Automatic annotation (TrEMBL):
One of its GO terms (molecular function) is symporter activity. Pfam families: SDF. The chain crosses the membrane at residues 21-39, 45-69, 133-151, 157-183. Keywords: Cell membrane, Membrane, Transmembrane, Transmembrane helix, Transport. It is a multi-pass membrane protein. InterPro entries: Na-dicarboxylate_symporter, Na:dicarbo_symporter_sf. Gene3D superfamilies: Sodium:dicarboxylate symporter (1.10.3860.10). It comes from Sphingomonas sanguinis. GO terms for biological process: dicarboxylic acid transport. It is found in: Cell membrane. This is Sodium:proton antiporter.
Length: 247
């Protein structure tokens, strides 16, 4: 336990250094991209941002409702309960920062027992990253390949799928998706300079990505608890006290 506590302290300190240096590195990548490609090149990012948000919208408003309906759950009730957490994720851009609100929505509003949600929701906050690690790196790889005029083959698309799926389970619930982006580009052999180009609008995209992440982090524990027979028909917070019957 002492060794683990010491290792945790070391990694936290290293992480703090990385977080402090990230703005400098991001600024350097962005400046290099502007000098090399000019402001005209940045206009192409508008179509890229639109494509990302279309993908996020399809997941949030098509894929997730279909999963809920397939498991006998009401999409209307789910979104009414999870919307505060989704909104906070959109503003905060951090799944970890939204975690208390997500847990509250899953437990009190959706009726998932705390004995399960206390494990499932934090676990999902670091493994269920549909926005940051699945949708965004895949579209980014396609954009960078098209921008530099590099052809992609069937094997490249398979690699994109594998990296996106595996990466979604290994992404920290913090702001940004630079790690997954560079991992995807390097795996496909695409220029890493493309990451500097995409960082110009990353905060705007990160808001939508985090909202999708939070929605998925509430969705999966709810579905699993329902299929396991753990979920209650009425959320605990909404139950009315029993009124004794009088003769």
């Amino acid at each position: 336990l002492s060794f683990n506590a010491s290792a945790l302290a070391i990694f936290r300190r290293i992480l703090s250094w990385v977080i402090r240096l990230t703005p400098l590195g991001s600024g350097a990548l962005l400046g290099n991209a502007i000098v090399r490609y000019g402001w005209q090149s940045l206009s192409a990012l508008g179509s890229f941002a639109l494509a990302v948000y279309i993908g996020l919208g399809l997941v949030l408003f098509v894929v997730y409702p279909l999963l809920l309906l397939a498991n006998g759950l009401s999409p209307k009730r789910f979104y009414a309960a999870a919307w505060p957490a989704i909104q906070l994720g959109f503003v905060s851009r951090s799944s970890i920062a939204t975690l208390p609100v997500t847990e509250d929505a899953v437990e009190r509003r959706l009726g998932v027992p705390r004995a399960y949600s206390a494990f499932a929701v934090p676990f999902a906050a670091t493994t269920k990253m549909d926005g940051c690690a699945a949708i965004y790196p895949a579209i980014s790889a396609l954009f960078v390949a098209q921008y530099y005029g590099l052809p992609l083959h069937v094997g490249d698309y398979v690699l994109i799928v594998l990296v996106s799926v595996l990466g979604s389970a290994a992404t920290a619930g913090l702001t940004g998706a630079v790690v997954m982006l560079t991992l995807t580009l390097s795996t496909l052999g695409l220029p890493l300079e493309g990451a500097g180009l995409l960082l110009a609008i990353d905060p705007i995209l990160d808001m939508g990505r985090t909202a999708i992440n939070v929605a998925g982090q509430a969705l999966v524990p709810t579905i699993v608890a329902h299929r396991a027979g753990l979920i209650t028909d009425t959320p605990p917070a909404d139950r009315l006290p029993e009124v004794p019957q009088t003769g």
